[in-house]
Design brief:
CATH topology of chain B: Rossmann fold
Strand order of the largest sheet of chain A: 1-2-5-4-13
Helix content of chain B: 10-25%
CATH architecture of chain B: 3-Layer(aba) Sandwich
Oligomer: heterodimer
Structural class of chain B: alpha/beta
Largest interface: A-B, 40 and 40 residues
Shape of chain A: globular
Radius of gyration of chain A: 23 Å
Strand order of the largest sheet of chain B: 2-1-8-7-6-5-4-3
CATH class of chain B: Alpha Beta
Number of strands of chain B: 8
Shape of chain B: globular
Number of strands of chain A: 20
CATH topology of the largest domain in chain A: Sulfite Reductase Hemoprotein, domain 1
CATH superfamily of the largest domain in chain A: Sulfite Reductase Hemoprotein, domain 1
Number of helices of chain B: 6
Helix content of chain A: 25-40%
Number of domains of chain A: 4
Number of domains of chain B: 1
CATH architecture of the largest domain in chain A: 2-Layer Sandwich
Number of helices of chain A: 18
Chain lengths: 581, 168
């Protein structure tokens, strides 16, 4: 993976010093909260319901064992012993103090990490394919380009105060695992007929209040020009994106308003000034960065899975874990393994400090000391020998990270929701827990097969509800939390936005609503048809009929929602601590 | 007081802003060193161009291109930041310097604060009128938050990877 040189270290150190000074000036009152807010957001620091939250950047989802141990250290020293992995491959800590936040950044800098631009109206952390470099369907390894773009976007002086946040995703595989169609800029690395690398560029995708699938602005931008081309897109957006209405400020609104042809024309006009100029990426720079992403020292192995053959017949637990968690690898004898952070009873994506340390240990023992964080909020060991699988499975089981549910019903995407977030209309984590408990039976989950349930606590869609096969959105009705259900969304190559099935439901009704949607599927499916494919064949009507045909009983065993948290006032009148801390 | 070329100094430029009911055509431009709105310049060009010391300022929704052919007519160009979070002024400055090769004084006016000044300096500003309620000596420190930068901008034509031998 990429390692900092002296220049990276110096820039990171100067950033820590800058933020330490800004925090000090906030504490003396020299900076008002209004002035400070934008500065802290650009360092990943939010003021949430209970305390400050910091979102730490994990560039393109790749972490070393040492970095994972640093997360454990931060969880223990500054937080309450756990952290939350997010859909943008980052990690968040929820219980921090403002005055300790510069120390956290300083600690992170010792392992070549930061929280730069993980929030605010700027270019955010760039996300990528969690199987980059190892996937069988990969055409181009996207990681060197992601790192080059990370450096370009870090403290870009022109783009620190955009109309709204700006997200890049990059993939280099046939199957898009980075959800590039729902990003402000989506980059797909491809090769032209001459075999040269370039990028298919999508623009104007995004979820949130107005979900839009990105459109192609250029079918092939040679890799040398990707900085200047991206810069022209962001510049046109900076100049013309709406600033009068926060809900219409994303680039997708500008692209829609101008039309892709006119938007592209403006980008190309701007690009003519910089194309082939000094910001053109040099072969030397690409080579320098690419050298950090060469293959580890794989052994010469044959693709014979001894472990699987031995255990499959007489160990159902291993067999179902293998089926769900083990992914193909381009090198014979190796696989990638997904460690589930979706154990029933745990908030999706949460990991304790002990789990982080243990995962770091597993990475060192079995996967060349590296891990990846997935946008599905799980961890990946990318380079595991097939002969190590049983030992890894045994170890992961002890850690609670071997739930065989990857890609299944309880592998839900879930935002922090009303338990933590000041924006949320409803709680997400307790609903995810209730759903997980309801459908915990692994035989049932394996029978249902691949399905994605995504939960967002509000319209901002951090839980990606629009692209869940079943998407759940928390809505506010007269101060009470309700949940709107949509179906038919999908991510990846088949990206689509879900359709709302009808009026919303209470917390206690939700498990029954899901059960009914699943009943339609079980009744109507052909052989191996997936939930989403059955939906595409049938359309929405049978699902509506099933769900709304008879009254949905509330499940009395589910605890009534605890509104106390939702009624906590906005903490922003308290400058340094939120009221509940 | 302003900051110019990294020094705190006295300043006798006066920024003209249209009051309610005033129009670009009819507003009386005071004598002396005045920085007029772009619209006033465009409406009163015939009389204003006789002045030896004239400045012009661009609002954040105006374009650098509008001055492209007239850059030599001004002793000073300013860009207004109506709110510090309005980032359009950064692109305006970049265009003036990098595209149109404007060499004169480029001043940030309006909601100008210390913590934005490093980026302002990078896109080409060389003078700043920090908000009056702020300590201008403290604001000066904002210009030296970083000693290294990754990207090219108006202050530095080469990105880091062309400036230095990386990897050390």
């Amino acid at each position: 993976m990429y390692r900092y040189d002296n220049f990276d270290h110096q820039i990171t150190a100067e950033r820590v010093a800058q933020f330490r000074d800004q925090v000090a000036r906030r504490l003396t009152g020299e900076l008002s909260e209004d002035e400070f807010r934008i500065l802290r957001l650009q360092n990943g620091l939010y003021m949430q319901i209970h305390a400050y939250m910091m979102r730490i950047a994990v560039p393109y989802g790749l972490v070393s064992a040492a970095q994972m141990r640093m997360f454990a250290h931060i969880a223990r020293k500054y937080d309450r012993g756990y952290g939350h992995f997010t859909t943008r491959q980052n990690i968040q800590f929820n219980w921090l103090k403002l005055q300790e936040s510069p120390d956290i950044l300083a600690d992170l800098a010792t392992v070549e990490m930061h929280a730069n631009q993980t929030s605010g109206n700027c270019i955010r952390n760039i996300t990528s394919d969690e199987f980059a470099g190892v996937a069988q369907d990969e055409i181009v390894d996207p990681r060197p380009y992601a790192e080059i773009l990370r450096q370009w976007s870090t403290f870009h002086p022109e783009f620190g105060y955009l109309p709204r946040k700006f997200k890049f995703a990059i993939t280099g595989a046939v199957n898009d695992r980075a959800a590039i169609a729902v990003h402000d800029i989506g980059l797909q690395a491809v090769r032209n007929v001459q075999g040269e690398v370039g990028f298919r560029v999508l623009v104007g995708g995004g979820l949130g209040r107005t979900p839009v699938i990105g459109v192609e602005i250029n079918a092939f931008v040679p890799w040398q020009h990707i900085i200047t081309y991206a810069e022209s897109i962001v510049r046109v957006y900076n100049e013309y994106g709406r600033r009068d209405n926060i809900y219409k400020a994303r680039i997708k609104i500008l692209v829609k308003a101008l039309g892709i042809e006119e938007f592209k024309r403006q980008v190309e006009v701007d690009w003519q000034f910089t194309k082939d100029g000094p910001c053109t990426i040099t072969q030397a720079e690409l080579d320098r960065v690419s050298a950090y992403f060469t293959a580890p020292a794989y052994q010469k192995l044959h693709d014979v899975d001894v472990a699987k053959a031995a255990l499959q017949r007489d160990n159902k637990g291993y067999d179902s874990w293998y089926k769900r968690s083990v992914k193909p690898h381009k090198v014979p004898g190796y696989v990638s393994v997904v460690l589930s952070l979706k154990k029933t009873g745990i908030a999706p994506g949460d990991a304790t400090a002990d789990q982080m340390d243990a995962a770091a240990e597993l990475a060192e023992r079995y996967s060349f000391g590296e891990l990846r964080i997935t946008h599905m909020q799980n961890l990946v060991l990318a380079d595991v020998k097939q002969s190590d699988l049983i030992a890894l499975w045994e170890a992961a089981k002890k850690l609670g990270m071997a739930t065989p549910n990857i890609g299944l019903l309880t592998d839900m995407i879930c935002c922090p929701g009303g338990d933590f977030c000041t924006l949320a209309n409803a709680r997400s984590i307790p609903l995810a827990k209730a759903i997980a408990e309801c459908f915990e039976d692994m035989d049932f989950q394996h029978d249902i097969g691949e399905i994605e349930i995504n939960i967002s606590g509000c319209i901002n869609a951090c839980g990606h509800h629009h692209v869940g096969h079943i998407g759940i959105l928390g809505v506010d009705k007269d101060g009470e939390e309700w949940y709107q259900v949509q179906i038919g969304g999908a991510q990846g190559n088949e990206a689509a936005l879900g359709k709302v099935i009808g009026r919303s439901f209470s917390f206690e009704q939700m498990p029954e609503v899901l059960a009914r949607l699943l009943q339609v599927y079980v009744r109507e499916r052909y052989d191996d048809e997936r939930f989403i494919d059955t939906f595409r064949r049938l359309g929405i009507e049978p699902y509506k009929t099933e769900v709304y045909g008879t009254p949905v009983e509330a499940d009395e065993e589910l605890k009534a929602p605890d509104y106390e948290l939702l009624q906590v006032g906005m903490p922003y009148d308290m400058p340094y601590y939120s009221p509940r801390f | 007081m302003i900051i110019k070329d990294k020094t705190v100094m006295e300043d006798d430029w006066q920024v003209l802003r249209l009051a309610e009911g005033e129009t670009a055509e009819s507003v009386a431009v005071p004598v002396g060193k005045v920085i007029v709105p772009l619209k006033v310049w465009q409406a009163q060009r015939a009389t204003l161009q006789a002045r030896t010391e004239l400045g012009v300022w661009l609002a954040s929704d105006e374009r650098a291109e509008e001055l492209q052919t007239e850059l030599d007519k001004f002793a000073l160009i300013a860009v207004d930041f109506p709110k510090f979070a309005d980032g359009r002024g950064y692109s305006i400055a970049y265009h003036l310097r990098a595209r149109f090769a404007y060499q004169g004084e480029l001043r940030a006016i309006g909601d100008v604060l210390r913590d934005q000044m490093f980026y302002m300096q990078r896109v080409g500003f060389n003078s700043y009128a920090p908000r009056a309620d702020k300590d201008i000596q403290a604001a000066l420190k904002g210009l030296s938050d970083f000693s290294l930068t990754y990207q090219a901008s108006a202050d530095e034509a080469q990105p880091l990877f062309r400036r230095v031998a990386r990897g050390a």
